[in-house]
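Lab notebook, bench 4. Still working through the backlog of constructs that have no structural model yet. Next entry is a single chain of 188 residues. Request: give me the structure tokens for it.
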Amino acid sequence: MTELKSLANHFLIAMPSMEDPFFARSLTYICEHNDEGAMGLVVNHPTNMTLRELLEQAEKGAEIDDEKGQQIVLSGGPVSQERGFILHSPQPGWSSSLSLTPEIMVTTSKDILSALGNHRGPDQAIITLGYAGWSEGQLEEEIQDNAWLTIEADPAILFNTPIHKRWEAAVQQLGVDVWQLAPQVGHA
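Model written out:
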């Protein structure tokens, strides 16, 4: 039996042939991957909600900066879409935070939301509702079936690339024209 290579802190790049409408042309940041399964956040599918609207629902009377309030909330995945996840640059002090890398943290607690609406929050943040989850062996099987390409995550793509360009930016790091790939790649 081969040892599992963790894909934590990697991007899953949906192949052009991905038929699942939720994951078509998606870029997913893998937060956790072990022998029990995987958990990630889709970082390029916007919702029709802004941070201002989310804060108005979650925390009545929250102080919201006009510019910060315009940040788009993303659809992080099809599981628990009522639950929020914030990927952000390091800033300790939030309850329910986990450092994923020296450059990326994830926080699930509501206390960070109001800070994101003004200038007390982390410098860089992505707000998602829901997550993507895979059971034991499921992600590995999907990769074997050529549903996904993987590449080490790049914080610049996460935090500095416009939402609608993240998938293409990750594909460009592969150094191939993903549109030229056939769904059967790797199967002789």
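Notes after review: The longest strand covers residues 125-135. The mean pLDDT is 89. Flag for follow-up if needed.
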